[in-house]
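Input structure tokens:
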């Protein structure tokens, strides 16, 4: 995939008319390889920052229909991926949030519209066997295990961490030291996002 094709893919993925906002999101998404963007574009995945004063409920047709008022949570989500819409909504435009929510988008694209992480046997085995996690949040569920591991795996290509986060930095080196099996699994999917057979089995 050429750099021009990758740029075109990101153009279709990022939903914003603000040039600076688009550039900020694209800078973080550069951590992921072009074939990943191509897959996401082909699967109609989108990354949509909320406008000033806009709520998740106002932005998301699915949340409105289901009356899931995430804006009323005690701690409003910094970002949210709506599987039904294949859209990552961003309230906070920080590298950590952008990279994490896009990892959910990739998970959904790999799974053909559902999270691959929830049914992939290799990921499920790795999660069950894990004796440590790259961040505390990655221990919450299979999909968060994938998202935080994917964010860490691409940390050498772009900034995907926030200085003020209470979590330890999600880095490739930290993931290699804590969970090398999951790093191999994530690398397999991210390097050949259309070739699931290429993913190593732990």
């Amino acid at each position: 995939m050429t750099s021009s094709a990758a740029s075109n893919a990101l153009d279709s993925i990022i939903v914003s008319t603000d040039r600076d906002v688009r550039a900020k999101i694209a800078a973080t998404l550069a951590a992921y390889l072009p074939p990943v963007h191509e897959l996401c574009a082909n699967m109609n995945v989108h990354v949509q920052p909320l406008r000033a004063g806009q709520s998740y409920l106002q932005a998301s047709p699915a949340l409105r229909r289901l009356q899931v008022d995430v804006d009323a949570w005690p701690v409003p989500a910094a970002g949210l991926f709506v599987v039904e819409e294949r859209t990552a909504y961003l309230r906070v435009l920080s590298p950590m949030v952008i990279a994490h929510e896009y990892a959910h988008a990739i998970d959904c694209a790999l799974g053909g519209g559902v999270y691959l992480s929830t049914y992939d046997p290799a990921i499920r085995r790795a999660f069950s066997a894990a004796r440590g996690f790259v961040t505390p949040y990655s221990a919450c569920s299979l999909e968060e295990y994938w998202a935080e591991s994917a964010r860490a795996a691409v940390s050498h290509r772009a900034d995907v961490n926030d200085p003020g986060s209470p979590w330890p930095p999600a880095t490739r080196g930290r993931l290699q030291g804590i969970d090398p099996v999951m790093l191999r699994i994530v690398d397999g999917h991210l390097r050949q996002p259309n070739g699931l057979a290429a993913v190593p089995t732990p």
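Residues 195-202 have pLDDT under 50 and may be disordered. The longest helix spans residues 95-110.
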